[in-house]
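[job 4471] stage=fold_predict status=RUNNING
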Amino acid sequence: MTKLIGIVAGALALAAGCANAQGLDWTGAYGGVSMATTSGEHEYDNSGVVDYYLEGPAFGAFGGYLWGNGAVVYGAEAALTFGGVYEVDPDDDFSYKDSYEYDRFFDLKGRVGYAAGDFLVYGALGMSWTRFQSNIGGKGSATVNTSGMVYGIGADYRIADGFFAGAEVLRRTYDFYDAGQDTDIDAEMDTITLRVGMQF
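[job 4471] inference complete, writing structure tokens
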């Protein structure tokens, strides 16, 4: 994933460098829908050893507001995502879908970027809240609401007047206690998201 982030960052920087430095006006409110795929790791008891991989799709909506100062653009965004990011046994690739999974995410993050022509390239940093359900439907099942950090990079491209499409690479980290399994869990997730939205 680190290599992928580096490739995406390089491509976005190259695209921005090839465009007009002053860009178009990105100031104002915006909103849209998203589709994402997630991969990651679960460490139980914070041992530093990967116990389970994480994977799964998610769909959601986002909205925010941007301000511009020349080519510099900054603002805040909220995003709500629903899906099933579940555990996968790394030894036999057995999926624990519908048994141990994260089913929703809420992110609140700041964005700082650079507008170049029809492109907006940005970095993001903020807080993420999620719900983890363990042993769903079984004895000792539990639901945990927890929070962590979210950070990453992204780019939006103006596809028409008032409309844009974009991509985002984010990392989320959580550290919490699961009473259902009587254990601490350290989670790290990498998400690649495609976004379509409009300015208001």
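[job 4471] summary: Residues 2-199 form a domain with the Porin fold (CATH 2.40.160.20).
[job 4471] exit 0
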